[in-house]
Structure formats: C-alpha cells, structure tokens
Amino acid sequence: MSSDWNPPGKERCRFLLLLLLPILLPILLPLASCDTVPSLRYGVDCNRKNPQHFEQYSHPKGKKEHATKEEVEVIVLDSDEDDHPRTKRSRAGEEHAGPSSKVPRKEGARAAPSMEEDEKLARMLQEEELRGLAASGAARNGRREFVADGRGFWLFHTDGIEEPGNEQAVRLRDVVQGDVLWAIFTNYMVQERWLLSEIALLSSIPRVVFMYPFLSSLASPPSSSSIVRYAPPTPQYGVHHSKVMLLGYNTGVRVVVMTANHIHGDHYDMTDALWAQDFPLKGEGEERSEFEDDLVSYFQATQWKGTTLPCGSKLDAQYLRRYSFKNARAKIVASVPGRHQGEKMHMWGHMKMRRILSRETFDPLFNKCPMVWQCTSIGSLSEKWIEEFTSSLCEGKNTEGKNIGRPEEPPHFIWPTMEEVRTSSKGYTMGESIPGFSKNVHKPFLLKMFCRWSSGSSDPQLRRRAMPHIKTWLRFSPSSSPSSPTRVAWILLGSHNLSGAAWGRLEKNASQISITSYEFSVLLLPSLLHNDSGQGGGNISSHYHPARG
C-alpha cells in the first residue's frame, strides 16, 4: 500500500486488471454449493500478527471502524523480509503423525488394450468422478456446480460485497467434495481449527497432510490420528509460501492452486482466486508428462518423506506418478530454495517462465503488447533485477518466428493506494496483507508503473472495496473497437509476489539462479485450452462455458 498518487500518462490503463476481469472471470464455471454456516467476524482492532491467535480467541466486533492514520505505518510495514507478508515466526517444525486410521481403501486399477480405449476410459473415469462430486455438491439456490476442468480460474466468495459479485464465486467447501481418500494442504498461514470448521468433510478424510512453516508455534493443534504436519526447511528469510491442495480419489486426483492463505480473513474479506483441474489414473504404459515431472519435483524439493495411507500405500512425491497429467490445461511455474545451475536453473522461478514462453507461438497482434503485474507484496528490488525479470516475461515468438518483444511502455503494476485501503470493507487493517516498505515502493522505476486497484466508473466484479490478496500476471492485446475483443496471450495465477526471493535472482554471469522461498503458480496458455487456431493468444473467454445443470 502506498500513499495516494496519480501517475502521469496512466489514465488509459489505470484500472486495467478490473477491466480485464469481465473477460477472464464472469464466464467462468459457476458455483456448486451455497451452504451457509455461521462465520466468525474478527474484531477490527486485531492486526492478525499470529496465525494461531485466531484459533484460540474469538474476535467480536469493536467500535473503531478504521485504524488511525498514525497506526498505518505499523499495520503495513511490520516486516523487513521480502516474502514475509504478515508475520515474523520461527520456521522450524517436525512432522507429527498419529497412528494410521483403519479406514479401508479400495485401490483403483486400470488397464487398456489400446491407446484409443485408454483415452476413452480416462475420459469416462474423469467424467464419472465429476458426476459423483456434483452429486455430493449439487447446485442449490439457483447456483451452478463447481467443476475443476482447468479452463480458467475462480474468484473466492467475499463477504461485504453485493451478492451479484459472488454469483460465480466459490468457497473452499465447494472445492473439497466427494469421497476424498487423502488430502495435502500446503500454505504459508493455516488456521487449522477454522479450516476444519469451514470444510466439514475434512474431519472424515482418512489422511490429511498439512504442509506449512509455523508448526513450532502451534499452541493446541487439533488432535486427530488422520492429520500429519510437516514444515519444509527454508534458508534464512525464506518462507514456504506456496498455496496448493491435492485431493486424492479412487479414480484420480484434483490439483488446486490458490492465492489465499488458509485463514478466514483471506477467504472472506479479500479478493482471492483458485485454479483447479481433475486428473484420472494413468493408463497402462502411459509416459510421464511435463506437468507430472514439475509437480513431483516440487514435492521432492520440500524434502517431505511422505506418510503411510490407511490402505498401507506410501503417499509421497513419487505416489503422484500414478496419475495422468498429460491433458493439463496449465503449466506449473514453481520456486524452491537453493542455487540452481545447469538444466535445473530452468526448472524454477522466472527462468522456468522464460523457458515456457520461449517455446510458445503467439499471434503477431501480441507484438510489443502490454503487460500487467498484480501482486500484494513488494521486496527490495533493483532496476537491474526488474530488467532481468521483465526479460523472462517477454519471451515468446510470433508466427513469423520473431520475438514478440518488450511492451512499448512499462508494465502496468496494480497496487492499491492508501485511500483505497482506507475505504475498503475492513479499512486500514487490510493494508497488513499488502506489505510494502516505503523504501521499496517509492522507487522511480516502480512509480512509473503503478496503477490503481479500483475503477472510478466500472466495478464489474463488485470488488472495489475487497482489497486484493490475489496475484495475477498477464500479457494482452487491447480491444481496438467495441466489436474487437481484448485478447490475452497468457495469464499466471498463484503465490508469487514481486521479489527476488520468490522469482529468483541470476548470479555468476547468469549461470545460476538463487531462490529463497517456495512458491507455486500456474500459467494458463490458450495453446493448452485447445484453441481452434492452434496458436497461442486466442480469445481465452471463448473457451469458457457454463457448468452442467
């Protein structure tokens, strides 16, 4: 959050992200379930310093509507670590696994005499699984069901906005549905008791793995033999910031990538989103895919040794190789701590983004097209690093074999102003989730990029007052006329904020990349959405369709 400003020459692009949201979101698959449960309302005086604080104390409404202006520096600038948005805590922790549950599990098995029959069976199994999920989370009150087909992303339901803004939104309990046999929840901040109350199904899942950094600070964690906890090791100032859920079923696995911490405030007070896709079991003899290798490599990098499922199987990174990810509608862009050299340098951070985009072919209309950055934390950056990072995001060739090039103007960096935070649904306390030291934010090379979060005249998603915790990065070709739609070359959604700790810094004459934190995002490309033209950069909105029913 920064003081109110009005950057010159930005009138045309000031409200870019919210103007693009109608293209990217409103045609997305609608909501499955709209069950209502009593929700905790945190007191406005609480600044949410301790992730476990909210598991121990209730937070009734106070009298003060907003923090005073003098309190804002404390609220917003409470951490000196690049990717430490809301708290300074010990990151040490151990895995605590209780005795295995005796809930039996029937192992799924598949065999296919031919590739054609195998693909047909895979589709049938996935559709059967989706029908089962739809039956357990059927549409209510006129809302449609949640479908995890990877074709776009969903906004989370947000309190404090007009109801039409939530008609195509989703809650966590809509995502975790059906006969889940095991689940992995990775995140930065987790309120376990809130999560167990938010997702009633969670307590009946035979094995649940929580992977997050603050285990040593748990005062009284929920006691359950089905819950396993693990804190990935991190270097100094590094954090485990990834926000991924894996849900295992008899017939496949659901992969969910989010921007929200597993805490009430992120899910109900701010603007957050998720991407999800279901994947079937592998067919006999099916080869590995890039998505599979990236997913397995990430969990291997956390050094998690796995856990035993009630059926006796070992759930670990290699266990994920039993699923078919060949039809993934996104690419994984992840970060893991370390200094990565050689081929591994291109597996992580912005160098992974560079490699993916360099292999894509885009329509010439994307030559030198604009770029949008939108995140909720700014690290200590240099102009040299911004150039390095921008170079990775500008990769890609057009149909003539030429690089589509850098934008003709600086990237449009969407960052809320102090006034936007002050007038948000929760006032200045929302600034705590948008950390940016003045010395990091007020740099000349950044100031010329800034655009506001909200629009003075248009608010299609009704989230002007719901401050962003969402993180999105994209390139697009602006609409040239009312009949010419805005077209998106690519869009990235996930946990990455703007910092070298998250994206990595090139070292030793660009022979290695140094990364401090764990991050996980997905890159959506039209080429993965079965674009009819066979090229990247189609009209992404044309690939969205209403859910069944």
TrEMBL record:
Belongs to the tyrosyl-DNA phosphodiesterase family. Residues 75-117 are annotated as: Disordered. Substrate binds at residues 243, 471. This is PBZ-type domain-containing protein. The record marks 499 as: Interaction with DNA. One of its GO terms (biological process) is DNA repair. CDD domains: PLDc_Tdp1_1, PLDc_Tdp1_2. Residues 41-61 form the PBZ-type domain. GO terms for cellular component: nucleus. It comes from the Eukaryota. Residues 1-34 form the signal peptide. Transmembrane segments: none annotated. Gene3D superfamilies: Endonuclease Chain A (3.30.870.10).
